[in-house]
Design a protein that fits this description.
This protein has about 350 residues and is of the alpha/beta class. The chain contains 15 helices and nine strands.
Length: about 350
């Protein structure tokens, strides 16, 4: 889930755009975050995921395949970044999520027995799991598509932010805000859910567009720096200190942190909780384990490899897959010729 900074981010630091406005940009995408979006969104009417004839879940592959083609056709150059080994102090959050999924699975079973379709769909989404075999299939699909991916030594968002900070990518892509804590100069949200989406529990549809958050503008408007943003996040609660400090919301956390001359002093103001080392978490956000990447390349797709994986192994429609491959080949060819756009940089400097 990450930290919830939504209420804190100034309007001047965020902007909705069309996908095509990101043409020519390299975006390092938090792969796990994106795959979970596909697992929760691409479902049958009763909430069950798409599956092949052998019972293997394929929602994530369907989303990854067709959404990535859409991104490429818009001129976006994606680099997917997968998680490695999480830090030890994330264990509590991982256990908390596991329990939530188990409870959701039990409620899903009851809802299905009662024929409560809407409730079943909600619990099915909450119980979504990304297994190691699903991740390996996702990596295999990206390889045959010709789309680069990286397996981070630790947190995928940290690696994605590092690529953006070093200029390998223009921005990190995720629904979560942690990339900002890890130092990404920009965050692009909604890449996996762009288009018309139904609001939960309502028969209402909204148009979802990509949103860019500019870190430099955010810091300038809030009167803080990245280190103080990390301390604010610790007050609000992160994956490493779930729940944060009770009674402290975004505005209060901002006020507290700004009252100190620097982040190190502000960090001392975070109430101590047994078993949580704030200094360790603070340093982890500043200097997470990452790897340097020398060359990133978008290659021509392996048509037979895609057909074998999706059609033969997972029962995708051959006609639909082959049509999509034609689009993929054209998109890969086009992005190699697209020059970087500059309009968005100018917009955030206004």
């Amino acid at each position: 889930m990450g930290v919830d900074l939504d209420e804190l981010i100034p309007e001047k630091a965020r902007r909705e755009v069309e996908l095509t406005e990101l043409s020519g940009r390299v975006i390092s995408i938090d792969a796990y975050n994106m795959l979970y979006q596909f697992l929760t969104a691409i479902r049958q009417p009763d909430g069950t995921p798409l599956m092949d004839s052998r019972g293997n879940i394929t929602s994530h592959l369907s989303g990854l395949f067709y959404r990535t083609i859409n991104l490429l056709e818009s001129g976006i150059k994606p680099i997917y970044v997968f998680d490695g080994k999480p830090p030890s102090f994330k264990e509590k959050e991982i256990e908390r999520r596991r329990k939530i999924k188990e409870e959701a699975e039990a409620k899903l079973s009851i809802a299905l027995q009662r024929g409560e379709v809407e409730e079943a769909r909600r619990y099915a989404q909450m119980s979504a799991r990304l297994t190691d075999s699903m991740v390996e299939d996702a990596k295999k699909l990206l390889s045959v598509m010709g789309v680069p991916y990286i397996t981070a030594p630790a947190e995928g968002e940290a690696q994605a932010a590092y690529l953006a900070r070093k200029g390998v990518a223009w921005a990190a892509g995720s629904q979560d805000y942690d990339s900002l804590l890890f130092g990404s100069p920009r965050l692009v949200r909604n890449l996996g859910i762009t288009g018309k989406r139904k609001l939960p529990k309502k028969d209402v549809y909204v148009e979802v567009k990509p949103e860019i958050i500019d870190a430099e503008m955010m810091y300038r408007e809030l009167g803080i720096d990245r280190e103080k943003l990390i301390v604010i996040a610790l007050f609000l609660g992160t994956d490493y200190n779930p729940g944060g400090v009770k009674g402290v919301g975004p505005k209060t956390a901002l006020k507290i942190v700004k009252s100190y001359p620097n982040a190190r002093e502000a960090l001392k103001a975070v109430p101590k909780i047994e078993g949580i080392n704030y200094e360790e978490i603070f340093e982890y956000f500043l200097n997470p384990p990452v790897i340097d990447v020398a060359n990133v390349e978008w290659k021509d797709p392996d048509v037979e490899g895609i057909r074998k994986l999706l059609v033969e192994e997972h029962d995708f429609s051959e006609e639909r897959v082959m049509n999509a491959i034609d689009r993929l080949k054209k998109a890969i060819h086009s992005i190699k010729a697209i020059k970087k756009q500059t309009g968005l940089d100018a917009w955030f400097k206004k």
